[in-house]
Automatic annotation (TrEMBL):
<dbReference type="InterPro" id="IPR003439">
    <property type="entry name" value="ABC_transporter-like_ATP-bd"/>
</dbReference>
<dbReference type="GO" id="GO:0015833">
    <property type="term" value="P:peptide transport"/>
</dbReference>
<dbReference type="InterPro" id="IPR017871">
    <property type="entry name" value="ABC_transporter-like_CS"/>
</dbReference>
<keyword id="KW-0813">Transport</keyword>
<keyword id="KW-0067">ATP-binding</keyword>
<dbReference type="Pfam" id="PF00005">
    <property type="entry name" value="ABC_tran"/>
</dbReference>
<protein>
    <submittedName>
        <fullName>Peptide/nickel transport system ATP-binding protein</fullName>
    </submittedName>
</protein>
<dbReference type="InterPro" id="IPR013563">
    <property type="entry name" value="Oligopep_ABC_C"/>
</dbReference>
<dbReference type="InterPro" id="IPR003593">
    <property type="entry name" value="AAA+_ATPase"/>
</dbReference>
<dbReference type="Pfam" id="PF08352">
    <property type="entry name" value="oligo_HPY"/>
</dbReference>
<keyword id="KW-0472">Membrane</keyword>
<comment type="similarity">
    <text>Belongs to the ABC transporter superfamily.</text>
</comment>
<dbReference type="InterPro" id="IPR027417">
    <property type="entry name" value="P-loop_NTPase"/>
</dbReference>
<keyword id="KW-1003">Cell membrane</keyword>
<keyword id="KW-0547">Nucleotide-binding</keyword>
<feature type="domain" description="ABC transporter">
    <location>
        <begin position="11"/>
        <end position="262"/>
    </location>
</feature>
<dbReference type="InterPro" id="IPR050388">
    <property type="entry name" value="ABC_Ni/Peptide_Import"/>
</dbReference>
Amino acid sequence: MPQEQHDQNVLDINNLHTGFLIDGELHHAVVDVNLSVKPKEVVCVVGESGCGKSVMSLSIMNLLPKINSKISKGEIIFNGEDLTQKTDEEMNKVRGKDISMIFQEPMTALNPVFTVGSQLQEVLFNHTDMSKQEARERGIDLLKQVGIPRPEKIIDEYPHQLSGGMRQRIMIAISIALNPKLLIADEPTTALDVTVQAQILELMKAIQEKEDMAIMLITHDLGVVAEMADKVIVMYAGKIVETANVVDLFTEPKHPYTKSMISSIPRMDEQKNKLNTIDGIVPSLKNMPHVGCRFADRCPKAFDDCTKITPQLAKVSDDHEARCLLYDACYPDTSSIEKEEVNQ
Ligand SMILES: Nc1ncnc2c1ncn2[C@@H]1O[C@H](COP(=O)(O)OP(=O)(O)OP(=O)(O)O)[C@@H](O)[C@H]1O
């Protein structure tokens, strides 16, 4: 079994394709995703709603609905093992221990009928042989670590008795309980107001530095990216369209999609009657163009080739990749009209 992992990486995703069965046909929501996460690195995955960010992260965790979804190609290498080949039972051992995940709305992830303490203890009992008393003490410690006031009291309360920000802190406490190597956070602050959002991001950053953990942070908010990322992955319609370190991405964006997203951030120093937006929407899975650039119909720079030739992701400057025919390197090896392998 090919298991290519660079020694220094926490995670290597190679050529991942994940699709959903719609009317008996497999339509891919994630196509040819390649990415790596190094220890202690914060990798932000950014893109509009429907770009495939969540499907990609749920593929890593093996949490997609089995009934209508499928990883049709590719590898997800973690700790030298391909997670796509693991059984549910084997994945249960990985989830929560080596890789944890936090979601946008903590209320849906927390169980309303159990106390904070019992939900913290559950993850400890599942993966360690701690006694009840030890788990309670570790729980209180974790609540302190995530800045929960009066942890001895809060540990016996129910999620609905707490604010949204507090609930997200509890989710973070649960997710770091077993010192995972990788934390996947899917829009962890979207449901929170801006001041609480800043506190939660600060907390995640502080924990990441203290615990030497890598984070894959999924967001549609470039403000969050600027605050948190070391490396940025920009996704559009299921494909990675640009990757760069955070400084290069904001100072020298290469893909017109990234440029449009950056120019749609409202700025205090510009007086405008209308905000910049990107006209159009991300195509649905059934309407995905099979040939050409998937962003072509919304792209201010599109030219003839863009609807006829499928660009490849290629290096366009040092440590900076893009998938756009404005760059010669992104023309596919065979420059004839290409039909994508998937969705046929
Ligand atoms: N369970 C599902 N069944 C069918 N299609 C799905 C399912 N989940 C997601 N999709 C489709 O896959 C595509 C990618 O969705 P995904 O949720 O990954 O986007 P996203 O970038 O995470 O967006 P958001 O920021 O809104 O979460 C979309 O077209 C979506 O409609």
